[in-house]
Design goal:
2 copies of one chain form a homodimer.
Chain A (H helix, E strand, L loop, with lengths): L5 E4 L1 H14 L4 H16 L10 H9 L10 E6 L2 E5 L5 H19 L1 E9 L5 H9 L3 E7 L20 E5 L7 E5 L6 H9 L9 E2 L9 H6 L2 E2 L10 H17 L27 E9 L6 H16 L15 H13 L1 E4 H14 L6
Parallel strand pairs in A: 3-4
Antiparallel strand pairs in A: 1-11, 2-3, 4-10, 5-6, 5-10, 6-7, 8-9
């Protein structure tokens, strides 16, 4: 963690804390546990920006009654392999896992299941949902739209979210391939880290409010925009832009949620969207039963061969060779399961504040 | 077309020529027409690399009996929403449209259809297949793996194909959003154009055989590799690499085709793959009935609003503002439908050669 002060907590400690905090808002224990699990999975896997660091944002939303602590999910339309779900303005951390389960249950019945969800809120890491599918020997898909931070290629303002895509494939002896990627060139969190360290950001990450390239992280967090994956036309910025649109449409237009620049902000007291074009934000989940396509053992054996083949690629100079998607997160999880989750002191302070506001003990 | 010599032919002329050429190999008229349509759609839409410019490669394959002119597609496994298809080593231009139809027919029945295909060959442009789905008011998905040209991030050799992803969404008054993108930073065709013009290629497109960045197109075509979308770690090269893997697995591991570095070459007399891990190459198609999720008219009205909203983005300096995916191809199609398809003389020469070899008149 460099020279940043931090304190380490066990996953179990943080899970219990988050569960109890959610319960103080009247969230039923089953849902509170579900939500806490999504957050702790993120911290265990090293995606620190999406775990307990966001707990105070969720508490803000619950305190201001901006999310419904008792959501009743409704299937507003369905077919044998599809469902459109209204999340009743619940926490995405609760609505997400339940909607994902609908997709997996449909896959059990007819081979695949596809669920688009409106009237929901931020759902944590996209990767959580595809890990659930792996447990059922399914290929899971997970997407969500989010508050606008990214400019379209050739645009000069924030119009699209960082709109992540996750998908995972199980191996037999080898660990699974777990893809979980935002569709922008660099995460907003990386801009914030550069700003805190007073460092320039690389070319190709962001633009200023006039649409010109910038290396100044202060400008980006205040008024600029992130660039899509590919950055500029020459390097395929139209492709990242296209993927962000795809996620937006599958998650929000297919479900009747808000999209693009009208996606509501995650954080309380941020400027509301210019107009409403739907309900809440949107997610999209898919589940594919592998044995609906091919013998499961054969598939897993091929994935093992695939993983080993790619690991055996001749390394680029100065590297140890290609990784397999999911490697860094899995390695982090192994360490943090045994050694605990290091939280920077600024995050610890927000959790202590949550403890004061909810009466749940944090440091014991 | 700059100062390159070319000759213009009507789409109808080229379609008839290709159909008749395919028929000389005993391909039934229905299949020959299907294959020709895929190629001409590519030329009409301005994707010159994937249209009649490849006709001589298909003829090479047919002459050497490397593809089966009379393929019988077999569904080797299926569920209500899925099928795994053996393409019987047919032309991808014939197997692809038929497998895509299976996906769409399943969507008619249960909301969505998903088909993975092994034992097939190059299928033309991925975009063709999603345009077919649009005609049935479905969201179409199309992917294929292909001969290895792309290095994984932190690798220094060709391990993955350019593995494209296509998906399309229909509007009402506005034209559809048609995404069709390779998962590498820049197409191999762009490297070849730079080589012909003796020009350097930009940073971020490719590496040499030692894995170092290179700007020399000769090196790349001889022994180097393309880089994935995102180019390097800092700009998200792991994301393009992940997407290429996703396409490979859905197209080839799910179906039992060859994958990664073992994907067979498209061109006759190229070095065969180091080993066989399946049959032929693989495609993957999906079809989602929009009205399985939401009222069709409501969806299309929202897409219109979405397209207009993104077009109204404040333009980046020196640009006319963001395009909508599919704009350039649709505009090209309108021009070429009326004015004809300009072919560079080197392509015309290959077609004249095909004419000589097959006895089908080309220039009339």
């Amino acid at each position: 963690m460099g020279n940043v002060a931090y304190q380490t907590y066990s996953a179990e400690h943080l899970r219990t804390f988050c569960t109890q905090v959610f319960e103080t808002f009247g969230i039923v224990p089953e849902d509170a546990t579900l939500a806490a699990n999504v957050l702790i999975t993120s911290d265990l896997r090293g995606i620190d920006s999406h775990g307990v660091a966001r707990m105070h944002n969720y508490v803000d939303l619950l305190e201001k009654n901006e999310v419904n602590p008792h959501p009743k999910l409704t299937i507003v339309r369905e077919s044998a392999s599809t469902a459109t779900v209204d999340g009743d303005n619940g926490l995405g951390l609760v609505v997400g896992p339940k909607a994902n389960q609908i997709a997996m249950d449909k896959a059990d019945q007819v081979g695949t299941g596809w669920v688009s969800i409106a009237n929901t809120n931020h759902f944590g890491i996209a990767g959580y949902y595809v890990l659930q599918a792996l447990e059922r020997d399914m290929i899971g898909w997970s997407m969500t739209n989010s508050t606008h931070l990214v400019a379209p290629l050739w645009g000069s303002e924030r119009m699209l979210g960082t709109n992540p895509i996750a998908i995972a494939f199980p191996g037999a002896q080898e660990p699974p391939i777990v893809i979980d990627m935002a569709t922008c060139a660099a995460a907003f969190g990386k801009i914030e880290i550069a700003r805190r360290h007073q460092k320039n950001i690389p070319d190709g990450w962001a633009i200023d409010a006039a649409g010109n390239p910038t290396n100044d992280p202060h400008i980006v967090t205040q008024s600029g925009a992130l660039l899509p994956l590919g950055s500029d036309r020459e390097h395929g910025g139209h492709k990242g832009y296209s993927l962000a649109m795809m996620v937006d449409i599958l998650s929000a237009i297919l479900s009747g949620a808000n999209w693009g620049p009208f996606t509501p902000p995650f954080i309380v007291n941020q400027a509301p969207a210019a107009r409403s074009v739907g309900k809440g934000i949107g997610h999209f989940f898919g589940a594919m039963r592998i044995d609906a396509f091919i013998d499961l053992a054969e598939f897993k054996a091929q994935i093992d061969d695939y993983v080993r083949t790619l690991r055996a690629t001749k390394p680029a100079p100065g590297t140890a060779g290609p990784l397999i998607p999911g490697d860094p997160e899995r390695e982090c999880e192994q360490v943090r399961e045994s050694e605990g989750i290091p939280l920077v002191m600024s995050v610890v302070e927000t959790l202590r504040d949550v403890a004061r506001r909810t009466g749940v003990a944090f440091d014991r």
